[in-house]
Amino acid sequence: MTAGGTNTTSDFGFTNLGSIGDYVWLDANGDGVQDAGETGISGITVTLTYPDGTTATTTTDANGNYVFTGLAPGDYVVTVGSGPAGTALTTSGTDNVTLGVGEDYVAADFGFVPTGSIGDFVWNDLNGDGVQDAGETGISGVTVTLTYPDGTTATTTKDANGNYSFDNLPGGNYTVTVGSGPAGTNPSTPTTDNVVLTAGQTYTDADFGFTNLGSIGDYVWLDANGDGIQNDGNTGINGVTVTLTLPNGTTPNNRNCANNPITGLPVGRI
Ligand SMILES: [Ca+2]
Ligand SMILES: [Ca+2]
Ligand SMILES: [Ca+2]
Ligand SMILES: [Ca+2]
Asked: Which residues surround ligand 1, an ion (CB under 5 A)?
């Protein structure tokens, strides 16, 4: 072609070029579906591999959108880069697109879910010491409430083993509150736990114990006639030391007088 000539053989076909996009989002419930209230993620790198093997990259905008334009028909591969800290993909990280003539493909969408969690145990604290000892098992059916950083709440109920978990949590300040334990029990630990969750953290220390407190007592007397029966009138003896050995072998409670029951005892074999 000479300068000033007219090129009549090249047909660039601009009207037939297509595009590929268009969205990277925070898949809050981790189901891979773009639900109402789930928002886009900005600043995520997306790479397009052209039919000839060359690549181009772009970054999602403030709304989580992106687009590659000016694409001829052919086979493309779209690959999403890393998500924000503490997230995991809920969709495939790649999309193989066979782009038609002039097609605007908008289904190359990628979701990331926050991977933080808070749990995980409600148990029968037999000796009431607030510690998960050997032989102390979980309690099922107790409600645990999670308060999110924005003040909204969610509840869950323990499984048969007393375990529970709130999942798909972004980092932030949470409060975990345990509901009532089984009838006749009292908490042996604080009933709330304020958790500062970092992105992607698995927090398993929101544990709550319930204990079934009882008492043992209550009388030492002068058995004047030696028959082992309290038929001797009002003859209680003061100042006698009584030692209790707890199921775990400790002896935390001594009582130095009669008619002074030892209270606050967990159920167990004394
Ligand atoms: Ca979703
Ligand atoms: Ca889309
Ligand atoms: Ca215990
Ligand atoms: Ca735990």
From this structure: 27, 29, 31, 33, 35
